[in-house]
Amino acid sequence: MRALKALTVVMGVMILVGVAVLIAVIAGRLTRAGRPGEAAPYMAAPIDLPRGARIEMMAAGADRLVLDLILPEGGRQLLILDLATGRRIGTIDLRNGP
């Protein structure tokens, strides 16, 4: 009977400690998240377009942004960007076939 009482007390203390840790973790996450509904500022490096180029169309995927550029000399180019970092992944020059 004595062991059962000791086990009950130990388990009760463990429940109280667990609840206290859970409250502390939730409070810590709430304070780090900032104000609800406020987006974190997004700062990426500027994207250099060729001089005189204009954006004809944009298409976004899960993690990529593709810009369809019309170049001043009449050509076209696809500029591929990483949405997470804003960094240029590559370019594809488009040419008319024979």
Protein architecture, described:
With 98 residues, the protein is α+β, with helices and mostly antiparallel strands. It has 2 domains: 1-35; 54-94. Helix content is 33%, strand content 29%. It is rod-shaped, with a radius of gyration of 28 Å.
What is the topology, as strand order, of the major beta sheet? 1-2-3-4
Biggest sheet layout: 4 strands, antiparallel
* Low-confidence spans: none
Q: H/E element string?
A: HEEEE
Find the count of extended strands (DSSP E, 2+ residues).
4
Total domains: 2
First and last CA, distance: 94 Å
Fraction of residues in helix: 25-40%
What's the alpha carbon Rg, rounded to whole Å? Answer: 28 Å
Number of helices: 1
**Please, what is the oligomeric state?**
single chain
Arithmetic mean pLDDT: 86
Shape annotation: rod-shaped
Helix and strand composition category: alpha+beta
Beta percentage is: 25-35%
Write the layout of secondary structure elements.
Blueprint: H1 2-33, E1 54-60, E2 64-70, E3 76-82, E4 88-94
Antiparallel strand pairs: 1-2, 2-3, 3-4
Task: Please supply descriptive tags for the structure shown above.
single chain; 98 residues; alpha+beta; 2 domains; 4-stranded antiparallel sheet; 1 helix; 4 strands
Q: What can be said about this structure in brief?
A:
The protein is α+β, with helices and mostly antiparallel strands.
